[in-house]
Amino acid sequence: MRVSTNQFQQTSTNSILDQQSKLLKTQQQLATGRKILTPSDDPAGAARVLDLEKSIGQVEQFNRNLDRAEFALKTEESVLEETGNIIQRVRELTVQSLNATQDGANRKIIAAEIRQLQDQLVQLANTQDGTGEFIFAGSNTRTRPFALGDGDVNYTGDQTQRLVQAGPSRQLATNHTGFETFMRIREGNGEFTTAAAPGNGGTAVIDGGRILDRTVAFDGPYTIAFTEQANGELTYTVSNAGGNLVEDAPYNRGDAIVFDGREVAISGTPVDGDSFEVAPAGFNSLFGMLDDLAAALEASGSNETSVDRSRFLNAGNSALGNLDQALDNILNIRSEVGARLNAVDGERRANESSLLDLREAKSNIEDVDYAKAISELNLRQVGLQAAQQSYVRIQGLSLFNFL
Hints:
With 403 residues, the chain is an alpha+beta fold.
């Protein structure tokens, strides 16, 4: 078969263009660091890279969520720490007010400081994070959750816990609501409260009581009533919620009164007709507890009788029990915050490990092997030079050269 000059020209040109195209592609691979420049280079590999990039983006979003969660939890931890400090200060002031050397004027000074601390608590409860969201408002993050109204502190937030997606199948809570932190605190010792009847005429003071046996059902409220017998002996009875007699014994000053697995101690001197109540513990807000304490301190008169003092001591003992419950509540929440921060760290480590694996898989598919690419570049350059030289030689051929 005869091969025309035009065919030689076309074949040589195509060879040069092909070598140039391959050389340019190799140069682009080296410049970008990627061996897949277009999906057509490796359709299956390109599709896999897209899937991996989507997975990487998702894990990176999880990490951004964790960053926000960590910031929110650390902000809450700081507020809780300061709240605990305020409760501890109020407790110190309460103990100070119970000292026998304190009179009504001094207690009013203590009450004024407690009112100031209460205002500080409201400000802490209304803390905002760096984005302006109220951290204790539940899901109503743009609404101030605590406000003074009619002398009380009202909660306007909700009880929704905010969650962030920390991993493919893991969500983490980033807040505690103001309701559980400040508004719902057990009173007394957590199971029951003790209180003196308002009309008591003696100087008896009841403590917060203790639980001796939880297996015995608590059938309160119980009433402890004192009666002076005809012979002058003082006795007491303990009656349960149904009015049934649980205990009936002579009163020996300093002895504990034990009933249904519970124990209380009454000091001082009760008189005939005095009574005390041991009731199931209810709930109160931290603000309400401080308000009740301040009111009791403010009610102290300048000419205080021994009976007046006993009434304040009973109120002060109740306040101490309430403050201990409030402090325990804050400590429990701080413990939960610490556990959540640990969970954030654990999830972040897991996500970083996933990112490492995903990026390595993506790199194996699309990243260029520089040693191989450089070798191929040299090969392409040699191929192009050879094609160009062949073309020049073919161009120079003529029958006249052989005459």
